[in-house]
């Protein structure tokens, strides 16, 4: 526990500063998204994005913060060496747990917002690339940390674990497609031409009939 406190003691003030900014940015981002999204989806997606940015910022600060009395970084490319040393009596099991939990929140949050990461294989690949970049940055800037293959494996495992835990909620924040509007089929109405009916008085018909039937009377 002492080693854990020494390693993460510097993150306490950083987290205390970053957390209010994340809490302030959440409602502001949600208010902007309400212009084009329902209130529930705007608030939820803004919360997930704010949490992911906060975690990413804290991870960046953690891996770039110098530790120990040495300014030189150590490179260890033997798989399993760090894990074996941590499991010994004089080792630090908290270091293994911390490496597993480092990318676990991002593995849980990113598939909710990024549809291309909605498979465990893609999450593992993205976490592997991110962890390699993190370990390479640690080694290049010489913060006194150990850059090892085991850290990459543990970080990737943590991201897969986070993705597996949140797998059922990956589609919970997807905006439903708009309801299709059913337009009734237009019916063609054929208008018949009006017929003109002439009503001739009966006396006129009698006169014409008498003229045709008895022409000798004319």
Provide a quick synopsis of the model.
Residues 53-166 form the VanZ-like domain. This is VanZ family protein. The chain is 61% helix and 3% strand.
Structure in words:
With 218 residues, the protein is mainly α. Helix content is 61%, strand content 3%. It has a two-stranded parallel sheet with strand order 1-2. The protein is elongated and about 135 Å long. 19% of the residues are buried. The chain crosses the membrane at residues 6-29, 41-65, 93-112. Keywords: Membrane, Transmembrane, Transmembrane helix. InterPro entries: Teicoplanin_resist-assoc, VanZ-like. It holds the Pfam family VanZ.
Describe the secondary-structure layout.
Elements: H1 2-8, H2 11-33, H3 39-64, E1 74-76, H4 81-86, H5 93-102, H6 104-113, H7 120-141, E2 146-148, H8 149-165, H9 202-213
Parallel strand pairs: 1-2
Helix pairs in contact: 2-3, 3-6, 5-8, 6-8, 7-8
